[in-house]
Amino acid sequence: MEAPITAPTAGHNASPDLRSWLQQLVATDRLAVARDGVSLIDEVAAVSKKLELEQAVLFPKPGGHHIPVVANLFADRSWIADSLQVPTDQLLARFQHAVRHPLPWVEVTTAPVQEIVHREVDLLRQLPIPKHNEHDSGPYITAALLIARNPNTGIQNVSIHRCQVSGPDRIGVLLLPRHTKHYFRMAEEAGEALEIALVIGVHPACILASQAIAALDCDEMEIAGALLGQAVDMVKCRTNRVRVPAHAEIVIEGRILPKIREPEGPFGEFPQYYGPRADREVIQVDAITHRRHPIFHTIVGGGVEHLLLGAIPREATLLDHLQRSFPSVRDVRLTRGGTCRYHLAVKIEKASAGEPKNIIMGAFGGHYDLKQVVVVDMDVDIDDPHEIEWAIATRFQADRDLIVVSGAQGSKLDPSSADGVSAKMGIDATKPLATEPMEFKRIHVKGVEDVDLAHQLRDDPAAAFLRTVTG
Ligand code: MN
User: Fold this and answer.
1) I need a labelling partner for 418 at 20 to 30 A (CA). Which of 88, 110, 140, 457 fits?
2) Low-confidence stretches of the chain (pLDDT beneath 50)
């Protein structure tokens, strides 16, 4: 690999950053490099989408811009496990541990991310911001950590929001009713703007941590530190009091303006539909800082990277929530077909009759997005949709094992809901505790695990062999 992927800037500790993850991808042949000139409008997203299950992609000069774009940092949950240096089957446990044992960040006074400072801002000229899905309203910043300060306490919150470029120094932002919105309401009621920063290009641990379902006033950057096993270096912004990761690639400093709403959207979202256009909050940009040779990370809305990043932290939270009441729960998955949000598979070591239904009800209490819960036994691979369907096909009877709840809170982004009012469906696909020995005995070919094909198969072509038989 040639530049721009280089070692961390001399004079700073080798902190885990976006570059260290890209180096790891290069070393394992998982980073493709595009030709110069791929357009920022649609084409960067199209190439990324095409490769989303296989490789990360670096675009050296997208649309002729001098800053490269990278996409597809994760094509599979095993990549996320790699980035945290744990085996895939320990990924959720690692995340649970980090949430329980946060590691405070440390403040530093000089930072690679402030090597270049722009006080005059022109977003589309200074940054390579792509347009992603076909009917998006235009270019969007999709992979930025939005860091906001509690206006009263200074405690920081980290989250990701879709950010529409609305003007040279103006960004339209969607704030769902969570922590950033809470801080913004506090500021707005006092007639003030909310100080924020958008941080682009960080180590995967920081992105994952931002998606933790944590309590208000839990600083997600402390979860990132715990995931990394070392405190994150943070530096004060140049135009406000927000602290940002010193080893990020790019920071956009700004304020969410009080009493101002402007049109934002449509934008292609995780349910594979467009989130609608409406009047939303506005960020006034005050400065852009970045490394001397920065890299811009983008996430294609609704793509695999987007879905996986949302899934892992939510799974860890739901697993925690369920295991508190149900020790028989072993693992959970937010399945891809269920947009990694709406459908949950739960694997249990069944101990009591009826317990799966309690687990289903517990899961629905764990997150309002959940719409369908399937409970399966230990022998079912919950990473394989065919296995889950097989369990439903052979261990489930709808008149006996189905729970339906109508009129509950669901996801507003589910177009089949009535503005977020949604039905819930629970499926107990576990087999009974006591069964006849052969009744639920899964078939198995003896020795299939031990077959060595190099030993059992001939080298010569099948055609030659077929001639000797058929003449
Ligand atoms: Mn939070």
Assistant:
1) 140
2) 1-13
